[in-house]
Amino acid sequence: MTGLKASTQNPESLKLLAGGRWLDSSSQDTHPTFNPGTGEAIAMVPFATREEVSMAIDTAQEAFDSWRKVPITERVRFIFKMKEVMEKHAEELATINTQNHGKTLEESRGDDMRALENVDTAIAAAYTLAKGETLDEVSREVDVQLEKEPLGVFSIVCPFNFPLMIPFWFIPYAIVLGDTIVVKPSELTPVPMQVAAKFIQDEVGLPPGVLNIVHGGKDVVEALIAHRNTKGVTFVGSTPVAKEVYRLAGQHGKRAIVNGGAKNSVVVQPDADLGRFMPSIVSSFFGNTGQRCLAGSNLLTIGKAHAMTLPKFVESAKGLKIGYGLEEGIQMGPLVSQSARARVQRHMETAAHEGAKIVSDGRTLRVAEHPDGFYLGVSVLDAVDPSMTVAKEEVFGPLASVIQTESLDDALDVINKGTGFGNMACIYTSSGRSAREFRRGANVGNVGVNIGIAAPPAYFPFGGRGDSFYGTLHAQVDTVDFFTDKKVTIYRW
Ligand code: NAD
User: Fold this and answer.
1) Which of 33, 200, 475, 485 could form a disulfide with 462 if both were Cys (CB 3.0 to 4.6 A apart)?
2) Are strands 399-405 and 296-302 parallel, antiparallel or unpaired?
3) Residue 332 DSSP class
4) What pLDDT shows up at residue 442?
5) Cβ < 6 Å from ligand 1: which residues?
């Protein structure tokens, strides 16, 4: 499948990629994937059978036996080619991303750009971080050598919200280091990765079986982890599933990098430069329609910052132009699915019931040209207490909860004790001292200072703590030590 049929009549079924060939799944268990901007089904997703999953892994295992022997300089050339191919098709990939996820075209370009940044970093890492070490003469005539060896087949399980970037937190590193992979895109947004894989397969010329794709949900993920030839799994998704995946990986003795959900706080001090930073604060909550694991969810104002911030925040948020992401000037797209929209609506009802005050109600928004799209306007709740459900649970949509605090210590208490998550927290302030106190005090993996989405570039690890992350090594450049194992040889000649 290279393109999208903009028709609900007979949407094309996605194929599986195994051993360098695109195969029709024999599965009867198929589900539509949508264009959230229009509400149309654009493809059918076959949930692969256990035999098909097994075949994809076995094919990857077969490919590993020769791929690991390909000199690293040659493997790097394939990754350079991958970069060239993805750059060449960047606009097509961004368009498809918007059609399947709903984010604006500009956001899709960013998603793609972050994927490419990981391709660049994998190339650099191959010649630097993947090198071993030696120590001469540790004892008389004895030398020690350490090398990092590839391990075999890895499964890459992806969430819906960054259909391009998140698979590439792992793909180029695993491949350049000599491993082979089976990627399972989200069943909600599988098309961008499918199309990227088609470009890579057709134009990069990777040996058959190095990159494989299967589709599905829970059963497929479990089969991927349990298979005897799988050496490890990378997972990004919600916390309940993350816990289950981490448990399964442990049970089967597999390596795991497991990123879970989030509940991020954005702190505003009275000394914040709101004139300069309000667009950044608003974008933290409503960029990608609030469906970012680094999105702001709780807006913690300190003291007088509440009165200064709330009216400007609501006004700026309400000014966002909402609609179909491929149309000119759109600043916020729809939710990914009807059920995602319903979840946000439910959170608002519960919050109102628990005593929060609705100061902007996105539930009334209608996009006239696309009545079947999964749209929701921006919502802001004031007078939220840290004990309320909406302040503690992940919402993952365009809803901001404003919580008043008295001091930086109070705000840090909400961050560190309020939710159990630990993905990101950020502060808006003009004080270096407060910024430092915040950086040291916030028990999260990613911290922003006057930055609303503290996304580490590919050449830094993507952090996460508490219920937002299970494991030791993180995504992006940290995966070099995940996708390789250290072997130490002691010589005497
Ligand atoms: P999800 O947990 O529903 O699905 C993630 C993946 O797990 C999908 O591929 C899905 O098919 C699979 N899956 C679903 N149920 C499963 C089960 N019971 N057992 C095994 N696999 C299962 O997540 P989502 O809705 O696609 O993505 C949004 C979530 O991802 C949010 O919670 C968000 O915070 C999180 N996320 C986290 C990060 C991070 O870096 N921490 C980054 C992006 C997204």
Assistant:
1) 475
2) parallel
3) B
4) 98
5) 157-161, 184, 186-187, 217-218, 221, 236-238, 241, 244-245, 259-262, 293, 394, 396, 423, 462, 464, 468
Q: What is the pLDDT of residues 372-387, one digit of tens each?
A: 999 999 999 999 999 9
Could you give the CA distance from residue 198 to residue 466 in angstroms, rounded to a whole number?
A: 37
Domains of the chain: 16-260+468-492 (3.40.605.10), 264-457 (3.40.309.10)
- For 292-341, write each residue's pLDDT tens digit: 999 999 999 999 999 999 999 999 999 999 999 999 999 999 999 999 99
Q: Tell me, what's the pLDDT at 9?
A: 58
Orientation of helix 218-226 relative to helix 239-251, angle to 10°: 30
Cα–Cα distance, 192 to 4 (Å, whole number): 10
- CB-side neighbour CA atoms (13 Å) of 101: 34
Distance CA 205, CA 81 (A): 9
Q: Distance between CA 196 and CA 161 in Å, rounded?
A: 16
With beta carbons less than 8 A apart as the criterion, state whether 387 and 404 touch. Answer: no
| pTM of full prediction above 0.90 | yes
Asked if residue 469 has pLDDT above 90, the reply is yes
